[in-house]
Amino acid sequence: MKTFTKGGVHPPENKLTANCPIEYLSVPRSVTIPVSQHIGAPANIIVNKGDSVLTGQVIAESKGFVSAYIHSSVSGKVNKIDTVTDTSGYKQTAVFIDVEGDEWVETIDRSEEIVTESGLSGNEIVQRCLKSGIVGLGGATFPSHVKLTVPAGKKCNILIINGVECEPYLTSDHRLMLERGEEVLMGVSLLMKALGVEKSVVGIENNKKDAIEHISRLATGFKGISVYPLKVKYPQGAEKQLIKALINREVPSGKLPLDVNAVVHNVGTCFAVYEAVIKNKPLFERVVTITGHSVARPGNYMVRTGTPVMHLIEAAGGIPEDTGKIVSGGPMMGKAICSTEVPVVKGTSGIVLFPSGSSERNPSQPCIRCAKCVDACPLGLEPFLLMTLTEKELFERAEKERITDCMECGSCSFICPANRPLLDYIRLGKSTVIKMARERISKK
Amino acid sequence: MSSTVIITVVSLSLLAILAAIILYFIAEKFKVYEDPRIDEVQAVLPAANCGGCGFAGCRNFAEALVKAESFEGLNCPVGGAEVMEQAAKILGREAPVVEPLVAVLLCNGTPGFRPRTSVYDGVSDCRIANSLYMGETDCSYGCLGYGDCVRACTFDAIHMNPETLLPEVTDDKCTSCGACVKACPRNLIELRKKAKKDRKIYVACSNCDKGGPARRACKVACIGCGKCVKVCQFDAIRLENNLAYIDAFKCTFCRKCVTECPTGSILEINFPPRKPKTEPQAENASV
């Protein structure tokens, strides 16, 4: 069975919600929609206080090429435009909407019927993705229309679909593939058309045997799509690792997948593309896994963006008494949130509630030079060295040691027997090095 | 026996003379002239090598002083006017008058004023905490309290106060080298003019949010109301990004802004207690 070659770790899977069907979460009384739910420039708000909005209406316009449209996820009145603490832990501008009924924009096709023919050209598909605010739903939230626009001089000959879901606990992509397999594959063929490629491969980790079987069976009805099971290993869902695992091409340091003629999209994104292109439905809801060992009713919910995390937790039975930490995203790359009023955004794949016993960090001890972090790093870096260099503020040396290649997967911190905060320091070093490099460029 | 000794002594002496001649010519050839005044100036500098002057160390600063035509822009904050005068005497120039400065923390978010809303259990390092989230309180501008400035200070002038959870500067020890200013990821430390008796009036807040959110996060936040700007007769206060700033060089310590501030974010330090205005009359009346 295929997998990537360098590094990787095996965290306990804990896929508690793998058998919970996707349920629609009730619309909350009010939503808070941040204007920056993607990588790139924050969107430009076009509604004012007191305006009435419909579900699916544009409330903020894309500003620049790398940016995304933001749509209202509910119908109601704009209460205010203020700042809110988001999943990043910092404040950002958001539109607060009080919900009144649930009236959708008329152009959205709300029928259940699955359409398998579009008749649209590649360019039209890209335009619809842009207008519908589609971003990568795997977690990085990179605007999809940018990835679908192949720059001159580069070419793409294969589309890779990420159904890996290597983060422990999360099952939103898994359930989506099982329940909405046809829509996902239809989305894949739309993306293939937009990119002008003939071939697409779907990678699914072997711990989701039912999804592999289901998608493989459905894929026989689509041209050019093949499905491969992958050996379970974290971080297989990372672009570079997935490309290596599936088609054995290595993306060089500092390059993009397009440099090896490949483009990677997540299954969640494919579903969103299907809905946007065929059903004309912008991206304003997504599947979110809410889970944890003490959670009363863990499950997978279709949640409107802007819903406070607390509303979702209440649906799952409230905050368990022993909760020590609430993490947005998976336990490996996710981030602890500092308030339950934080809104669900396009990139929120899950909410994990950890009991206080397992959420605290163990005290850090001196490095014992076991080099487990070096073995675990999927990018072939030396995490212990990068941490020391950052501690000693030797940033130029850290740059030479390719600190900017780090994708912050956390395998090094996970494997370290001395509980050293490797990633904390590497992240600091990486941001400092990037800042230094920017200054150098601006000086020239 | 004696001949062996003589041969040894003579041959070794000849070798020594030969080596000395070679070394002499090499030394002449590669001689580097160094101004002897550099050593003299370096001797009067504090030898702290703190970098407060903007140079890598005291030697580099001494070189710069000797090379420079005037002392403008060159100052040793650690040694102050005394050292600069000595250096000026050696070089036969005039030392400009430089006001002494002292480090001041622009935040007063003690646990009483600024309640903790979350718990951070990561690395105890301000830069890392700052890169992760806004901190244990709701203020994304205020002091994080993990002591990067304390570790940066080589003069033992900053210490964490365990009650306020904020760093405190010992004015007598502070040399205004600026190491703490650079260390703080939130730019909360400012070098302000040192006044008589270490008196200070400054806005102890850096929150640029609007009044409402700022006040919700911290009771003593500057809400940008502008009352202090209006009351100041000396044009020393300006308001930018919902935050007031008092120019220490224009401030005359009249203390009017302190009483005007509705949130108490302007601090007055080392002043004698104010005379109560109305109470004396009341006392007279009762007597």
CATH class of the largest domain in chain A: Alpha Beta
CATH topology of the largest domain in chain A: Rossmann fold
Beta-strand share of residues of chain A: 15-25%
Distance between the termini of chain B: 116 Å
What is the residue-mean pLDDT of chain B, rounded to a whole number? 89
Separate helix tally of chain B: 11
Helicity range of the residues of chain B? 25-40%
Class derived from helix and strand content of chain A: alpha/beta
For this structure, the quaternary state is: heterodimer
Number of domains as seen in the coordinates of chain A: 2
Quote the beta fraction of chain B. 5-15%
User: How many beta-strand runs of chain B?
Assistant: 8
What ranges of chain A have pLDDT less than 50 throughout 5 or more consecutive residues? Answer: none
Q: Stretches of chain B where pLDDT falls below 50 for ≥5 residues?
A: 279-287
Largest sheet of chain A: 6 strands, mixed
Please explain how this structure is put together:
The complex is a heterodimer of chains A (444) and B (287). The model of chain A has no long low-confidence stretch (mean pLDDT 93). Chain A folds into two domains: 1-360, Rossmann fold, CATH 3.40.50; 372-443, no CATH class. Chain A has a six-stranded mixed β-sheet. By secondary structure, chain A is of the alpha/beta class. Chain A has 14 helices and 17 strands. The longest helix of chain A has 22 residues, at 422-443. By secondary structure, chain B is of the alpha+beta class. Chain B has helices at 2-29, 36-44, 58-67, 80-91, 126-132, 148-152, 179-183, 211-217, 227-231, 256-260, 279-286, and strands at residues 101-105, 158-161, 166-169, 189-193, 200-203, 237-240, 243-246, 266-269. In chain B, strands 1-4 form a two-stranded antiparallel ribbon. The radius of gyration of chain B is 29 Å and the shape is elongated. In chain B, 33% of the residues are buried. The A-B interface holds A 82-83, 85, 88-91, 335, 338-339, 360-361, 364, 421, 424-425, 427-428, 431 and B 117-118, 121-123, 125, 127-128, 131-134, 138, 140, 209, 213.
